[in-house]
Amino acid sequence: MTKTAKSSETSKIAFVSDAIYPYNKGGKEKRLFEVSTRLAKEGFDVTIYCMKWWKGKEQERMENGVRLKAISPLFPLYVDSKRSIKQAVFFMLHCFKLLREDFDIMDVDHMPHLVLFSTKIVCILKRKKLIGSWNEVWGKAYWNSYLGGLKGQLAYVVETISVRLPDVIISISLHTTQKLRKDLKVRTPIYTIPLGVDQKVIDAVTPAKNHVDILYAGRLLSHKNVDTLIKAIALVKKKHPSISSLIVGEGPERESLEKLAKELDIEKSVKFFDFIAGDTALYAQMKSAKVFVLPSLREGFGLVTIEANACGIPVVVVNHPDNAAKDLVKNGVNGYIVENTSEDMAEKIMKLLTTKKRDYRKYSEQYNWDILIKKLIPLYTI
């Protein structure tokens, strides 16, 4: 490990995130993994404080040059398909243990928002800089629809206060930055630095033997809108009886989605798989698919769309005001932006299935981690 001139000025970074990759697979967890491991290679002393996701008695371990330290037991992230308030409160309280830890800069994942309250107190008492990593803005309307009533109103208040606690905010997309400024009226300095891919790693992956026409990979949550995709597949099947699709992921919607596929009589055309172990296996499957569909209505960035392009396949995303993934697609060029209807989705899927293959990899070039990490390093330097 060789320290750069900049990283030698900063010795210890404390990342705080309840969930971590690869134990829990999601865009924010993947981002933290990529950022933390690359900072470690640059010479930073990096520790991620999290829940205890691994087995065994040890509370601390090293993975890929990064120290993982459990500050709380593993509490379920979801209850009845919604984020657990109990988990958010417990993890927030356990974060006071960070008063005993040694660090120069703390970077806190904004979800769950309550965690920023305890870490802010820790940073004030220890006189350290607090960075907030912001993946998405939920806003008043979504909180009301998500929790409803008084709970939704209180959650929105928590969000509006929490976003004012960091000294600096790192936003993962222009979409999120604009919502921070416009919807939440944030005046804190914001640096917009997107997520990235490692094209060299992707290029070295051999395509999977299991070829499919349509692929989805992600958590099976209600806002991921996978039911619309399944209905679209049913429409595609009417014109292409041999259509094959693979839905990769876990989540509380799994059972209802399998039931929907059976009701539409397409269970033979829609296969469900749990999360594929490791990025290499996912990239291999992407390379063996013809179209990647991300039907989600809310994404802070939409990393899988970039990964799919990097694997050489086009993408279909949904036109929704809360979906940042639509900003990654040039309509009719590296994929399609569709309205949130199974009819429009099916039409664009069929169009891509019959379109001559292009070099979609060039649309992911600007999202290379080797470039992006250089923009992040100054923010962790004191």
Order of helices and strands: EHEEEEEHEHEHHEHEHEHEHEHEHEEHH
Q: Report the strand count.
A: 16
Q: Just give the CATH class of the largest domain.
A: Alpha Beta
Proportion of residues in extended strands: 15-25%
Q: Given the C-alpha coordinates, what overall shape results?
A: globular
Helices and strands, with pairings:
Elements: E1 12-16, H1 27-41, E2 45-51, E3 60-63, E4 66-72, E5 78-79, E6 82-83, H2 85-94, E7 105-109, H3 115-126, E8 129-134, H4 139-146, H5 149-162, E9 168-171, H6 174-182, E10 190-192, H7 199-203, E11 212-217, H8 226-239, E12 245-248, H9 254-263, E13 270-273, H10 279-287, E14 289-294, H11 303-310, E15 315-318, E16 335-338, H12 342-353, H13 369-376
Parallel strand pairs: 1-2, 1-7, 2-4, 7-8, 8-9, 9-10, 11-12, 11-14, 12-13, 14-15, 15-16
Antiparallel strand pairs: 3-4, 5-6
Description:
The structure is a single chain. The chain has 382 residues and is of the alpha/beta class. It folds into two domains: 7-193, Glycogen Phosphorylase B (Rossmann fold); 199-366, Rossmann fold (3-Layer(aba) Sandwich). It is built from 13 helices and 16 strands. The longest helix has 15 residues, at 27-41. It is globular. Mean pLDDT is 93; it is low at 1-8.
Name a few traits of the molecule.
Rossmann fold; 13 helices; 16 strands; 35% helix; globular
